[in-house]
Specification:
The chain has 100 residues and is of the alpha+beta class. The protein has one domain (3-98): Nuclear Transport Factor 2, Chain: A (Roll). The protein is built from two helices and seven strands; from the N terminus they run βββααββββ. The strands form two sheets. Strands 1-4-5-6-7 form a five-stranded antiparallel β-sheet, with helices on one face. The relative contact order is 0.18.
Length: 100
């Protein structure tokens, strides 16, 4: 799995989604959440409620070396689109970028 474009709403123990990834990739992501290898999206949203204001446009889970990264894009109330990269296991914010 190199990159999964997932657009997930991973809630505690459950998953609902619309996806460009195939079922095998989504099953793998669900398994990682169930095993505690990555945090559910809901947990991440609760870590940074002020940063993640607005509408979630896209969510990807990407592997970089041994690390799994959540890449999330939000449409902010002011019209800006901001991309965040977080460590999927710890939730630590790795990068933030305002899209042009």
């Amino acid at each position: 799995m190199k990159t999964e474009s997932v657009f997930l709403a991973l809630a505690v123990g459950t998953t609902s989604f619309c996806s460009h990834a195939d079922d095998d990739d989504l099953g793998q992501i669900r398994q990682w959440v169930d095993e505690g290898r990555i945090l559910p999206l809901q947990d991440l949203l609760e870590l940074y409620p002020n940063r993640f204001a607005g509408r979630l446009l896209d969510l990807e889970v990407e592997r970089k070396g041994n690390r799994l990264i959540y890449e999330m894009e939000f449409l902010r109330p002011d019209g800006r689109v901001i991309e965040y990269k977080l460590d999927a296991r710890t939730g630590r914010l790795l990068e933030q970028e305002v899209e042009d």
